[in-house]
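$ fold --in a.seq
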Amino acid sequence: MTDLESGRSASTSPCQEAQEWVEDAAQASGFVFLTGAAGLGKTHLLRSLDSRSDEMLLVDAAGLSAEQVFLEIVELLDVPHDLHERNPVQYANELRRAGIRQVVAVSNVHLAGTVRTSSEPGRVMRSVVWSLGAGAARTGVRLIAEVDSAVTPVPKNAPAISLDGAGASKEENPPLPDPETVEGAALRTLAQAELRTLRLEEWCALGEIIGVHLSVEQVRGIAAELGSLSLDGDTARFLHEGYAHRIRRAMADEGRELNDRIVAALHQLPPGPLATYAERTLPAHSARAGNFEQVIADPRVLAACDRTALLEPLPLAFPDGIPAGSLAADIHYLDKLGVAPDSHEEWIAFLHRNAMCRNDLEAAEALDRAVDLPWRTEWAHWRRGGQFTLSPDHVGEVECLAVAPGAVLVESTGSTGTRRLWNALTGAPADSPGVSQAVTPAPAPVWEADIGWNKVDLRSSRASATDERRLTLRIPGVNAAAAVRDVVVLGGTQGIYAVTVPESGARTAPSPAAAFALPMLAPHGCIATRPYREDDCRPTHERLCAVFGADRTHRLTGSRIPDGLTHQPSRDFLQEVGFPEIEFFFGLNTLPLSATGLREVDWEQPQGAELPGGAGPFYLLGEWIEGVLCLDGASGMVRRAPKATALDAGAGTETLVSTSLAQFTAMVSLHWQRMVVYDQSGNLDSEELLAELADWLKGIDPAAGKTELWQHVLDPDNFDTL
């Protein structure tokens, strides 16, 4: 945090400094945080500044998500923009064109979100205040945000105006509670809660879990008597949230043990006073306990907890990144897609689909039983976000679907032109050997389907001109739809799946419903790179055949391997595993060695590229990035001699491609498999894929994986030229 007070004269107060910042549009920073402990008048100061300035707007972040804060700012600024481009970067372009001058004050940033263990305060600071304010010189919009730094730390190196604690009263900075008194035990219980405002009966029920026995009348009296609490009807809260956090920090290990007991009790989804509390806070409590993934693995919990409750604690649950392939990762990627349903049932429909994609039928059935799904996934060949290892029969992106006349078969056409037949009712590939392709008569479909942007509009085939029954499936990433009987088959960026939709959900509507908007802000949390797994990358003949095809995997007999190749592991590899024939893959072309054999070549030395000492003879494997790809017969290393036209030709050029032929083949095989997924990622998980690929290439060959050659082919900026 950068304290702006360092440039303040001794007579300038923080309040004056804040006022000067608001009034002076030439301030170096387009945003500033107003920090300090509770009770120092930060919120009052913002409201006072707002009342005195015609160019200041005020947004209260308390209880809001970062997206809601951003939307409130957008609505107050009232600058026309494309609704599908509501994000700070693109909205900043509209602000620049509008030419406005405005200061936006955001109060109670530390109270953003619905639970104490929420990532929303941090998201408001980084994704809204910092992101919008950083472009103030172009947009004319500056932001000042109030944060209780005792609750939520301000981002490092952020500009700040700090109010000192000299003015805080005893009520605003009370002593820590004595656990031996009834009042102290009650305060400690209230601090352990995740909701900032509790119903009195919830307060008592939480106390029972941790061994504090309280009656509603007792806690009502305590809340009315203590100046540190606020009583409003049948609810109570801390007057200043910083006090709750101070109590939590003081309880330390004891607090963690009490929280574990709360998690165990709430995991049972108890009826009674804590039923709603559990649905809203169990994920946050489990994030504090360090068992978030284990708790949400219970389908009952997943079905009971709402979307917000699952999203807000993700960064705390996984401070080092969300494990790829986990349930938490599924939730993260739905957030990244902008899936923000109006109903809990619609949210569960997406979780049910993902369970079907994982082939977790038990979880899918439990989710199906828990709620009335607006649409139900019947079968799925759909790649989930973060799933980078594909089965041999993976579908790939589907661009078109067509129904076989009078049958239950659907034909999909992929982005590469590949066509496949599917049984629309079961999802079985109808073009596989041994699968009957008999045409089965099918009645007229229940639905007529039209594809829109990020949605599928369904119209009941039984509708009349005066009673048009409609339903919209708001599903991102769908390119095509086809209806067979009561099934709607969907194809898109990540494969194909089928859903059934109850007609009871259709309604008479003048026009189809709107799709989900594009995500406004960065998603909750980030995905951790999977640890390198050698077994997943070790090249075998069978694995190469599965990746490149048997006709493009070439093994050599001993008689066809030249005597100059003295490196025995390379000789064994060529005989037992083979080498792939590749064309036009990120600058790589390799020879069909079973046809060409290993041909000895001279090492080329354009513009001073040096021959490695003691190396050679060299055998031609192909070309890569305007260079000759060679196998060193003595060491088994794979090297690249850049051609004279190569951008990196010259003295000191890095020639190492891989430490051995086996490692090079493993690297190329992994690169090939991951880039097949990358081409179909739709930017959903492309960054994570490339990060994992770079990590795993270094795992296969630490020396070669970090060279500029491999970094070059992994840089998206170079993809169009490779």
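$ fold --in b.seq
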Amino acid sequence: MLSDIPTLLDDISAGRMVILMDDEDRENEGDLIIAAEKVTPAVVNFFATEACGLISACRLPPNARGQLNLPLMVRDNRSQHETNFTVSIDATSQVGPGISAAQRAHTILQAVAADATPRDIRQPGHIFPLVAKPGGVLKRAGHTEAGVDSGPHGGADAGGGHSGDYESGRHDGASPRA
């Protein structure tokens, strides 16, 4: 069942995970997202064990990249959909390698904090930030922009963690709708 936009925004505001679908003519996939400030170790564990995709902090509006001094992963982005990955990060305030669900949740929360600074993160790490294009979905019809755009309108901080290529019950390694 597909939800309308107001329901989706209410769910995000309430801290519920939603599957955000894109157009069949684009990637034709769903990303599991949650408002970044609602991320917990249990959420990260669910992303890792059930969604089985890349966990990222897709909250990052264009200005956050500068705020955290995050370089883009590549200088010449030739990916089909121009996805703006930065270098991977971990929180500097945690003990351990950064791979556990608790450590990754802590990294996401640290990176999306309004007062986050470059001293709060280290590179490389285990979370893969994405940076939205200026102008949001009106400029790029991507999951990153939709995730960021849904934050302020849903009453939550712009952002979320996501795990791409999610299709409920699919554990065979194939892309959804392949």
